[in-house]
Specification:
Layout (H helix, E strand, L loop, with lengths): L1 H11 L9 E9 L11 E9 L4 E9 L4 H13 L7 E4 L5 H8 L4 E4 L1 H9 L7 H12 L4 H15 L4 H8 L16 H4 L3 H17 L5 H15 L10 H7 L4 E2 L2 E2 H4 L1
Length: 264
């Protein structure tokens, strides 16, 4: 069975991509309980939202989560097989993906995951302060407008700069890609301001691989992750208001989540 899965994964990795137009891409480097001696290798996973709002598995390959070289190889392969540039990419700030993205798809916009950002910031604060700090961070990315979000962002800095400068520095590190989601449809904000979409989709795969206590080689692990994810994708729901993705792909601009022509 595992050899059949490997062959399916190999064919899938060579499929043409010229018709695969994605409005959004979620990316993550996910560590499974692999039982082999290949160092810090993990599974690089990419998921995309198609024009009709369907969530698709785009790539499953082995690499190093924080290595730009691993992500560069993955993205170059997708581009060489014809995949057009996505409009927006969502991922954790620690990924080497971002450096690679600029070389392969320089026009794609960037959104850093607010869930990872929140965890990184709170990790640099005492537990007694974390609840109030977390509430203020929620005020930032749950604000109705970018202006309100940036106002809350400044309040966080003013409140905690003196006592917890490292936490504030962690928040400010990715300012240029923290508010990008506000330039996209508000109906999609919950999905595009974090990597929860890809993490929840892969949760079933992670559970199944954990029960096997490792699969031996990276090739067999990748094949298993691919097959399990493909099966799980049959239950993935379309994005809400998926008809708006077509507008995103056509270049329609959104202001605070509202189509520009309607926001005036």
């Amino acid at each position: 069975m595992k050899y059949l899965w490997q062959e399916e994964h190999r064919k899938w990795n060579h499929r043409p991509m010229h018709l695969a137009q994605y409005g959004y891409l979620w990316v993550d480097g996910i560590h499974f309980n692999l039982r082999h001696d290949e160092g810090r290798l993990c599974v690089l996973v990419v998921m995309g939202a198609t024009e009709d709002g369907k969530k698709e598995l785009v790539a499953v390959t082995g690499g190093y989560r924080e290595s730009a070289e691993s992500w560069l190889e993955l993205l170059r392969d997708l581009k060489e097989r014809g995949m057009p540039s996505p409009k927006l990419c969502i991922g954790d700030g620690a990924l080497g993906f971002w450096k690679a993205l600029g070389q392969v798809y320089p026009t794609a916009e960037r959104q850093r995951c607010w869930l990872h950002k929140t965890a990184n910031v709170l990790d640099k604060m005492p537990k007694t302060v974390q609840p109030s700090a977390k509430s203020l961070i929620h005020d930032i990315y749950r604000a109705e407008t970018e202006q309100d979000a940036r106002a809350a962002y400044i309040r966080f800095q003013e409140r905690y700069q003196a006592k917890y400068p490292k936490a504030v520095a962690a928040l400010m590190k990715d300012e240029s890609s923290l508010f990008t989601f506000s330039h996209y449809p508000a109906a999609h904000w919950q999905r595009i301001r974090s990597t929860n979409t890809i993490e929840s989709a892969i949760a079933t795969v992670r559970l199944r691989t954990a029960k096997t206590r490792g699969q031996g080689s990276m090739a067999t692990t990748l094949a298993m992750v691919f097959m399990l994810a493909e099966r799980a994708s049959l239950k993935w729901r379309k994005l809400n208001a998926h008809q708006l993705i077509e507008k995103v792909l056509s270049g329609v601009k959104f202001i605070n989540g509202i189509e520009e022509s309607l926001a005036a």
